[in-house]
Amino acid sequence: MIKFILVSGFILISTFFSPAIVQAQTPVATPPTAQPAPPQITPFPSTPKTEISPEELRKFSRITKQILVMTEAVKTQIIQTIQKAGFTEQQFDEIYQAQSDSTVQPAKPLSAQEKTRYDQAIAQIHQIQQAAQTQIATLLKSESMDLQRFNQILAIVQNDPKLLQEVQRLMKSESPS
């Protein structure tokens, strides 16, 4: 359910990123004296109609890296919200599924107090999601990339192993934001 909430609340979050991009966020140890070579990027033809410029790929990599960080923070906030409401993730998931699908019944019926706490948690989760969506929109704007273009590049990168490797390399070479 938490995964469902995250996915349904975001257009651009980690479930849309292939695991390979997520792995690119893991820091790689570099010897202290080694200086990484400046990135050399060449345009990649991605589809017959679409090219991704080196600058667009850099922007996409920066944005993706920041979105992945945001996603982890949002996930943590959602879990904390659920716990503050007095539920385990499993309990919350059962309630959510029962509320969403009338054929699913929770392990035990909800008391009025539990229903109130659940409804308040859902409202807080929606606020968290809306704030994250605003942050993502601001991030895209600050990088001069619109959502449609970001999603186009995302679809292309997910289907092109060479581009995916380049995005991973760029994400690793970016200094922490």
Explained architecture:
This protein is mainly α. The chain has one domain (2-8, 54-173). The chain is built from seven helices and two strands. Strands 1-2 form a two-stranded antiparallel ribbon. Strand 1 (44-45) and strand 2 form a beta hairpin. Helix 3 (54-84) packs antiparallel against helix 5 and helix 3 crosses helix 7 (161-173). Residues 1-49 have low confidence and may be disordered.
Structure characteristics:
177 residues; mainly alpha; 7 helices
Biggest beta-sheet profile: 2 strands, antiparallel
Report the principal-axis shape. Answer: elongated
Structural class by sheet pairing and helices? mainly alpha
Total of helices: 7
Summarize the structure.
With 177 residues, the chain is mainly alpha-helical. It has one domain (2-8, 54-173).
SSE layout and pairings?
Blueprint: H1 2-9, H2 19-23, E1 44-45, E2 51-52, H3 54-84, H4 89-100, H5 112-142, H6 147-158, H7 161-173
Antiparallel strand pairs: 1-2
